Amino acid sequence: MKHDNETAALAALACVDLDAWPIHETDGSDYALKVAEVRKDLQNVGCARIGGFIRPDYRQAFHEEVNGVAPSAHFSTSSINPYFTPDDPELPVSHPRRRYSENTNGFVAMDRFPQNGLSLSLYRNPAFQRFIADCLEEETLFTFDDPLAGVVVNVMKEGQQLAWHYDTNEFIVSLLTRKPHEGGAFEYVPDLRQPGNECYDEVERVLDGRSDRVRSLSLELGDLQIFKGRFSLHRVVKGQGERHTVIFGYAKQPGFIGRVERTRKVHNRVTQAHIDAEKRARNDGLAD
Question: What pLDDT, on a 0 to 100 scale, did the predictor assign at position 4?
Fold first, then answer.
């Protein structure tokens, strides 16, 4: 049975360019070198582009799978601040928590994906999880218990944008499956805040367009991205043509489930699991 499980796990990695990224050989020197490359980028700029991770002959298959579920995306247009929090009239008008921008995009929930499809198979693959954990210098990572958010698709139609914001979870792993004809760049500010310190002055400079810390990244089809989104302010600018990104969610502790309010905003629904988990609170002293 162990042999059968290992064979199945390796088969699930058929979509990965294992020559360029030998994530199935954790004891090899090539694996160690690749992990070191990713770690260096994460340490230096809070973001790593893992170029050509998906084999060219599988990129179309990912594209088709995501195109198939994209029509079920819940789209919303809202005005958000970087923290997804309500307005606080007691703060100055220029304060980042009172700075709202249009946010227009859609998300496909995990329960819309084909259960044996490429996206969920890669997400649950032990070798893939081990690679992501090693890149983040974590002993272990866990798949979400959230029935809607473990794997999602971010869908951005032409002219839509993802406004400046922080993520709920500490890091994000994503795969670009459809690229706009023009535009649609990912912009971010590495490590803009730390636990217990929001660094509001620098956030205000970013929102005003006065910061020299903003970086831009243009991803290609088949590129995997690891990004520390809870601490790095980021956005996706408007593009010409549709943009699809599969987002894989992992957590440092087991049992992660998203907050009710934010889940409802993203997916227009919640489950009993979200309601039951609402009593749990974060301990990093940062706003959501």
Answer: 53
Q: What is the DSSP string of 171-231?
A: -EEEEEEE--SEE--EEEETT--BTTB--HHHHHHHHTT--S--EEE---TT-EEEE-TTT
Q: Is 124 exposed, middle or buried (0-12, 13-18, 19+ CB in 10 A)?
A: middle
Please name which of 162, 227, 229, 247 lies closest in space to residue 192, comparing C-alpha atoms: 229
Task: For residue 208, give every residue at least 6 positions away whose Cβ sits within 8 Å of its Cβ, in sequence order, or none.
Answer: none
- The pair of structure tokens assigned to 262 is 């934010």
Can you tell me which residue has the tokens 């499980």? 5
pTM exceeds 0.85 for this model: yes
Q: What is the mean pLDDT of the segment spanning 57-83?
A: 96
| DSSP-derived secondary structure letter, 70 | G
Q: Looking at domain 2-277, does it have CATH number 2.60.120.620?
A: yes
| Alpha-carbon span 102 to 92, nearest angstrom | 20
Read off the tokens for 200: 């509001």
Of the CA atoms within 13 Å of residue 74, those in its CB half-sphere come to: 15
